[in-house]
Amino acid sequence: MINPKLKIDHIHLKVSDLEKSFQFYQSILGFKIVRQESKTVFLSSSGSRDSTMCLVVLSELKDSNVSIIQHKAREAGLYHFAILLPKRRYLKYFLKHIQKNLNPEYYEGMADHEVSESIYIHDPDFNGIEIYIDRDPSEWKWNDHTVHMVTEPLNVNDLLKESIEVDNEEWNELPSDTSIGHVHLHVSNLALAKNFYHEILQLNHTATYPGAYFFAANRYHHHIATNTWLGENIPPAYSDNNRPGLDHYGISLQNQNDLLLLKNRFLEFKIDIDEDQVIENDNQFSSSFYAYDFDGIKIQFLSNNHKK
Questions:
Q1: Closest CA to 243 of 65, 61, 75
Q2: Hey, is 95 helix, strand or coil?
Q3: Could you give phi then psi for residue 245, rounded to 5 degrees?
Q4: Is the pTM of this model over 0.85?
Q5: Quick check: 20 and 13 in contact, CB under 8 A?
Q6: Per-residue pLDDT reduced to its tens digit, 38-48
Q7: Beta carbons within 8 Å of 27's beta carbon, 6+ residues apart
Q8: Taking the CA of residue 164 as centre, how many other CA atoms within 13 Å lie in the half-sphere pointing to its CB?
């Protein structure tokens, strides 16, 4: 199986208005800019001042007059990406923050998944965003390799009672140990998605919902989820289109040997890989390559222990 230290590294989004999106990610989510190149900004949490490290990349579309309504096209791509906070009290701060500052049009909802507690919003281009905390893994209920997850209402009153370390502490920025916990994707066929993420990439198939599969390395509930909630046989993701949405997401592996083994495995299964693209965000990585899942969703695979 794939190295259990696999994790989601970053999300790269195409946006229609870079300034508007940056203001949203800064004022609502608390991201800090670590680097800017032309029409691309690199964002991270408060604890990351390294210009080569980021969690989210925003790139403005070439055609700034593109209609955002086009983003609602029924095609494979991003359902949401999930920002994992290190402690429950930060979710409380974030909830109180958006109660005061988030325009209701960006609000999606809240949920308790038993393994985690989540708040859902979307950005100005309708890219879905989940902000969540994990419950202690000792509380997760496993049946062999399957973890029990549900979708129930979030107990807001209980969350708001969460103890704080400093009186009147408020949400000002993402805490330093924030990460991208998982990515949830629209796909055209669950069996094909399972073939790529489970059989080829070798993630565990950890849970099944109606119309959705969940996959993870090690004993995590999920790093990647796939669903057919837009319908089956939707068109693939088109990486060269001029619509807002996912450009690619990054997966980091423990070392270069793992990366090489995965590359060879992809070649064995005749998965196209691309090593010639300009690598943005990833100056800290000594090597990486891009691949595409069976719905044309672009993924960057990186090794995370050899900085340039």
A1: 61
A2: helix
A3: 145, -160
A4: yes
A5: no
A6: 899 999 997 65
A7: 101
A8: 15
Tokens describing residue 208 = 């099944």
**Considering only CA atoms, which of 263, 308, 259 is closest in space to residue 285?**
308
Q: What is the mean pLDDT of residues 209-215?
A: 97
pLDDT digits (tens, 9 = 90+) for 134-151: 999 999 999 999 999 999
Q: Kindly tell me the burial class for residue 161, based on how many C-beta atoms sit within 10 Å of its own C-beta (0-12, 13-18, 19 or more).
A: exposed
The whole-number pLDDT of residue 217 equals 93
Contact between residue 186 and residue 71 where contact means Cβ atoms under 8 Å apart: no
- The average pLDDT across 88-116 equals 96
Kind of pairing, strands 142-143 and 128-134? unpaired
Domains and CATH numbers, the chain: 7-303 (3.10.180.10)
For the chain, give the percent of residues with pLDDT over 90: 73
3-class SS string, 15-42: ECCHHHHHHHHHHCCCCEEEEEECCEEE
What's the confidence (pLDDT) of residue 65? 60
The position carrying tokens 């062999």 is: 144
**Residues 199, 288, 18, CA angle at the centre, nearest 5°?**
105
